[in-house]
C-alpha cells in the first residue's frame, strides 16, 4: 500500500473506529479500552455487608482471559471483582457494573477483540471534583494514556455519578453544565472528539435533588452520549448503593447502549 493511502487511513481511523465501523477494527488493532469513572455505584458496592464484600461473584461477572483490568500500577491483568479494589481503596468495594458490561459485550460478537477496563471511579465524589486540572481528572487522563501504551483504542467512557450532587440546590443547578464540560474536556484532551459516553441516570442520592440531577443527565445535549436509567434498579441495604443484582443489570444496559454506537 502506498504511503499516501496509509496517511489518509491513519488520519481517518480515530473517528471511524471510536464510533461506527466495528468490522474495521478488531483484535488485530489491540484492546478495546473502556474507562470506568464516577463515584461509588461505578466503583461498586454490590454485595457489601457490614462494610465487607460478601465475595459472591454472579455468573454475569465471571472472569475471562478476554477481559483485562488496568490495575493501580498501570499494568494489565485478568479482571476479577472488585474491579476498583486498589483504586477506590479507602472504601470497601464490591460488585460494580464493569464485568457485567464486559461479558455482555463479548456475548454480542461485536468483533472488537480483547476488552480492557480502566477503573477510575472514587466513592463520594462530586462533579466539581472531576473538573479539568483536578486530581481525579488528572488520574483519569494518566490512566487512559497508560492504557493506550500497549496499543488499543479507547471505545467509550462509562460514567455513573451524581449522588453526591443531590445535596445542594446550587450543585444541582450547575450539574448539567459541569457534566457537559467534563465530557467535552475529556474528549478534547484525549483527542477523541466523538468518543462515545454511556452514562447512568441516578436511582438514588444523598439529598433531595435527585430529580434535578436525573433531568440534567437525561437531557444532556451532546452528540454520542447515551444515558441508561437506573430508576427502579435494586438498591442495597443502605438505600444509596445498587445491589449486586442492580449492578449486573446496569452493566448489561450499558453494554446494550454501547452496542448501538457500533451497530
Ligand atoms: C465498515 O467497513 C467495511 C470495510 O471497510 C465496509 O465494507 C462496511 O460497509 C462498513 N460498514 C459501515 C456501517 O460503515
Ligand atoms: C480481524 O482481523 C483479522 C486479522 O488479524 C482478519 O483476518 C479478520 O478478517 C478481521 N475480522 C473482521 C471482522 O474484520
Ligand atoms: C455469538 O457467537 C456465538 C458463537 O459463534 C454464538 O453461539 C452466539 O449465538 C452469537 N451471539 C450473537 C448475539 O450473535
From TrEMBL:
A Pfam family hit: SASA
Keyword S-adenosyl-L-methionine among record annotations: no
Protein's UniProt keywords contain tRNA processing: no
Annotated ranges, domain Sialate O-acetylesterase: 31-259
InterPro entries in alphabetical order: Carb_Esterase_6, SASA, SGNH_hydro_sf
Gene from which the chain derives: LOC105155523
Protein's name in the database: Probable carbohydrate esterase At4g34215
Signal peptide feature range: 1-18
GO molecular function: hydrolase activity
UniProt keyword list: Hydrolase, Signal
Highest rank taxon of the organism: Eukaryota
